[in-house]
Amino acid sequence: MIDNRLEYDINGFQSEKQVKELLRSCFGDDEQSKEYFLRGFKSTMKICSISVTYNKDLVGMAVAWKSVFHPHCTYISIAAKPLYIVDLHKLLEQLQYYCDDMLPLQTSIWETSLKLKNFYESTGFREVRRTYNSLLDLSSVADLSVIVNELQLKHDEYSVVSLSDISCNNELKEEIVMLIKKTYESTHTINPLGVHDLNKWEQLIYNEDTFLEGSYIIVYKSNVLAFSLLHYSDDMNKLEFGWRGTKNGIDENLILLLTAYQIHFAKTRAYKAIEAEIDNTDPYSVAMASFFPFSPSPTLITFQR
Predict the structure, then answer these.
(1) What are the pLDDT digits (tens) for 175-219?
(2) Local structure of 81: helix, strand or coil
(3) pTM of the prediction?
(4) Which residues fall within 8 angstroms of residue 164, CB to CB, at 6 or more apart?
(5) Cα angle at 178 between 173 and 183, to 5 degrees?
(6) How many CB atoms lie within 10 A of CB 78?
(7) What's the CATH fold of domain 7-124?
């Protein structure tokens, strides 16, 4: 039964403080879900928001927004306090009314969010991706020399260099940018990219959080065959694996070799762990996660309708 005392308001004012209090009630310590919702709520490309109040208290909310980087879908997020019978169908219908019918709706939730998972599945959403935020404890990778020897390069003209090493080589830098762009596009066909020039991609790759000394490429006769980025983390004891890929098909050995180089780099600098965001639509991150002893992690499911 839906509580008739609940009031639904389209684009009514809600302060960020009120929204954060709602999200705390809905998601507790789940920072991922709270950040995802707030991304939409604070977005300059927000389409609409629907508030649900009970005696003027905010007990539920839904938001829809667009993205410049991925413009071919509409992102949505729904939050509702568990002790109130908020009509999720009504929230979704009102979001849909204000959104572009030509674009799919997309959202991401934890697999353990059973109420939302069942709701999305019952309303025609289909699972399109699973993402695992896994941690690699560097102490669990004992002897990297064995791994490197097993994956050794096939030819003397192959070389492994860091992005820092080739900082003045504009020709190689441009090739890296083009390869990373092509790889990202090939692993995101479900939610395609917008049109972005190479300058934009270069800014994304050579971001201030990219650890250039620990981001490696494999070069053969002045051609980039593979890449593997590494990033700083907010946690001083931890780093983050970034985008990775190969030029000629999916060459797992090259990916694993570059990952081993990054692990060695992190260990020699006394880092304790490296975190990875592993999408099951990305064969390169899956290859890495299947080989190295990453910890089990909860699953983030992305749905589209």
Answers:
(1) 999 999 999 999 888 888 787 888 889 998 999 999 999 999 999
(2) coil
(3) 0.89
(4) 212, 213, 215
(5) 125
(6) 22
(7) Aminopeptidase (3.40.630)
